[in-house]
Amino acid sequence: MIRVFDFHKMPIVDVVNEILYDSAKRGASDIHFDPRSNHMIIRIRIDGSLEDYADVPQDVEKNLTTRVKIIASMNITESRLPQDGAIKIKIRDLNLDLRVSSLPTNHGEKVVIRILDYSRSFNGLEALDFSEINYKKVLEMVKRPNGIILVTGATGSGKSTTLYSILQRLNQPDTNIITVEDPVEMEIEGINQVQVNSEIGLTFASALRSILRQDPNIIMIGEIRDTETAQIAVRASITGHLVLSTIHTNNSLNTIERLTDMGVEKYLLASSLEGIISQKLARRLCPKCKKERPANDYEKELMKKTLGVDIEKTWTTVGCDECQGGYKGRTAIHEVLLINQEIRDAISNGMRKEDLRKLVYTGTSTLLQDGLEKALKGDTTIEEILKLIELDVDDIKEEGDLNIKDSLEEIKIANESKKSNQLNELKEKIIINNSKDKQEIDAEPLF
Question: Relative to the CA of 161, which of 178, 189, 241, 402 has its CA 20 to 30 Å away?
Fold first, then answer.
């Protein structure tokens, strides 16, 4: 995995190009240039996990970061303040679209390059791993003429990919679509895209006010960050526009609470909200080397209480030369809430959280349920899903007071036991072979 570059003989331009090209070829989403006290470490993020990539000598560190800042159109004389930049470059057979961020640290400038890959957006909603039920719900959402549709999740959970896929579907010659983004991550032919620039006062809120005078049919807001943006977005959806946006929340229920906490009136939220798509990314099992193993008691109980199915086996990782520890790529798990009249009335009347929870999750698969269904099919592992949904312990307790940490410990012990058994079997074979060799030697005549 570790790459070795001859930094003193190889031109720094070629070094940077090779790092960018090789990282993209390996499927990395981010490249980190981390300064240390006496050298720099380059790390790349593959399938959500950071891995060491290369060591950079201290005397080359400055040249490397300067080259990255030059091609990202950043100020190379400024190293005391954070900066943002972008790179569009063709290296050999790859057209790369990159976002660059620099941050001053006590050991020098830390630079992070995000490798944007919106190929799945071009493939449409069908390529985003929605279950059949959730896919139908999303199609019903986007057919509605007005209202607000929110895509929620943590940073790096694929929200922009989902939004761009929806925009691709809605992009028709007779439709005026305007987006407000920070930054504009993917240019789409036929869509008017506005780049936010807070330094000159072009914020999400100020851009939205102007957009409403541009006769739009559909408005996409990159992110709802503050009360003003939330209120304008909701009011725009009520006045006959379809509004798409993202917000940093974990699930549908938290999204409703977050918007009311941001000062959106409940009656406005109830009448404008059309749907919420919550998502997370789980590592996908390598199709070449994955295999089944016996399920432990916890996993049987979890599947029974969550999905109502009995299992004897579950999928696990093995590892081969084509994957990273048994995983290759990532799959999305979703929670799709389509708002109906009953939920609108509950939001408008300020129903208690416990009662609203029961109403929201009647007929809606939770992230846990969707994740476990994908684990059942062999797309990922139960262990991976439990790590992702660890924050949503309340949902699991309602399913039978199950304990995630105990399960992960059980799986860990099972994996260690499996390795120990394999090691013991190997030792026994060596002992047997040695014994056979000794017997053959003893049986041989001396002369």
Answer: 241
